[in-house]
UniProtKB/TrEMBL annotation:
Pfam families with a match to the protein in the record: FAD_binding_3
Organism annotation: Roseateles koreensis
Pathway(s) the chain acts in: Cofactor biosynthesis; ubiquinone biosynthesis
Gene3D superfamilies: D-Amino Acid Oxidase, subunit A, domain 2 (3.30.9.10), FAD/NAD(P)-binding domain (3.50.50.60)
Similarity comment: family membership: Belongs to the UbiH/COQ6 family.
Transmembrane segments: none
Cofactor: FAD
NCBIfam families, A to Z: Ubi-OHases
Residues in FAD-binding domain copies: 125-324
Keywords of the record: FAD, Flavoprotein, Monooxygenase, Oxidoreductase
GO molecular function: monooxygenase activity
This protein's name: FAD-dependent monooxygenase
Length: 370
């Protein structure tokens, strides 16, 4: 049997990106998981907000520039509304001095492009059973079974909410504006995307208490659209549902420890955050970039599974992951709560933040991964 340097377990976006990044360094990589995206991955209706750091990594992996032009859409402005009249927070790429605040990417196309790039990665071999390797990188997502066998603590704290994702077409052009409504208890986000209709489509992410989400998932399209149009107050024009609705349970979790002898956790196998800030995959891709960087910079005598090396990976990622978990959790507590004092606080807080350009600039740079 061939000797491998790294075994990557799990072929989601994070596992595939890691296999590409390490293969490009000339390491012998075994990728355990399906070679082709599953129907669920291919038909994923989600649209991911990716920050500048994630796009840069995908560029280096030769994935970004191979994407069809209608697979990603730049976001120039972001408008966030609170749940009292006039509570508004706005971010603009122009004011922040960046070309765009983020890119919204078609999740299914991203999975397919990563799989396509792997077909031309000479050092990466697809395997159907685990093989011995100096390092095992666990990228199996939130329900990772291998993580459990390592004795890692990973206790998801459920928010009691589900996120409904779908594609929409609006009666008005999106003009590169992403919109979010903090409506306590639900949070609605519309992310501009080119498909199914160029210039007028949105990816929907609507996080709601479980019972309300179940009602809306079961409702006929017309009823769903009525609820959606009521929630978005006509700000984006009249919204029409196109295709299926999918949903995901939402939770906060962090794995402890993140590494052990000859293994490391990355992506959703390492951390789960609420999608309200669109940061889960950005965190996972930052894990990939950090692990690839410490492996590339290693002393010649160290193997990729060397524990000292893996501790460098932990140092590079722990604070960022912790901060994003706390930030999304804190935002959710303040914004999803129906308690009157918090309601006043969040709405006045939004307006106060809107009037503070330096703080907005700091927040934007953090979200962009700069
Ligand atoms: C509604 C919603 C919206 C989101 N929006 C955003 C966004 O805008 N921006 C953003 O950055 N993030 C977003 N996220 C988060 C993002 O979806 C995840 O962080 C990301 O998909 C995690 O990728 P992953 O590769 O770690 O895990 P996964 O995508 O779960 O992939 C893991 C893979 O491993 C495979 N696997 C599991 N067990 C095994 C095994 N034993 N052997 C082999 N293979 C195995 C699985 O089948 C799967 O293919 C959103 C999440 C949700 C729910």
């Amino acid at each position: 049997m061939q000797n491998f340097d790294v075994l990557v377990r799990g072929s989601g976006c994070v596992g595939r990106s890691l296999a590409l990044a390490l293969g490009a360094q000339g390491l012998r990589v075994a990728l355990l998981g399906a070679a082709e995206p599953s129907p669920a991955q291919r038909d994923d209706v989600r649209s991911y907000a990716l920050n500048a750091a994630s796009v840069q990594l995908l560029r280096e992996l030769k994935v970004w520039d191979a994407m069809p032009a209608d697979a990603f859409t730049p976001v120039y402005d972001m408008k966030i509304k609170g749940d009292s009249a006039g509570a508004l927070l706005e971010f603009s790429s122009w004011a922040q001095g960046v070309d765009e605040l983020a890119f919204i990417v078609d999740a299914g196309v991203l999975e397919q492009q990563l799989a396509a790039a792997l077909r031309y990665a000479p050092h990466v071999q697809q395997v159907s059973a685990p093989v011995p390797a100096a390092l095992t990188a666990v990228c199996e997502g939130r329900d990772s079974a291998f993580r459990q066998s390592l004795g890692v603590t990973f206790t998801p704290h459920s928010y009691g909410h589900r996120a409904i994702a779908a594609r929409l077409v609006a009666s008005e052009p999106h003009q590169g504006v992403a919109r979010q409504w903090f409506r306590s208890p639900d949070i609605l986000a519309l992310l501009p995307i080119a498909k199914p209709e160029a210039g007028a489509s949105y990816g929907l992410v609507w996080s709601l208490p479980e019972a309300r989400a179940a009602e809306l998932l079961a409702a006929p399209a017309s009823e769903f659209e009525a609820a959606l149009n009521e929630a978005s107050q006509g700000d984006a024009g009249a919204l029409r549902l196109v295709g299926e609705r999918s949903s995901w349970p939402l939770a906060l979790a962090r794995a402890e420890p993140l590494i052990g002898p000859g293994w490391a956790l990355l992506g959703d196998a390492a951390h789960l955050v609420h999608p309200l800030a669109g940061q889960g995959l950005n965190l996972g891709l930052a894990d990939v970039a950090a692990l690839a960087a410490v492996i590339r910079a290693r002393e010649a005598w160290r193997s990729p599974g060397d524990e000292k090396l893996l501790r460098r990976y932990v140092r590079a990622r722990q604070a960022d992951t912790w901060a994003m978990g706390e930030l999304t959790d804190g935002l959710l507590k303040v914004f999803a709560s129906e308690a009157a004092p918090l309601r006043t606080l969040r709405n006045t807080g939004m307006n106060a933040l809107n009037a503070l350009p330096p703080l907005k600039r700091w927040l934007t740079r953090h979200a962009l991964g700069l």
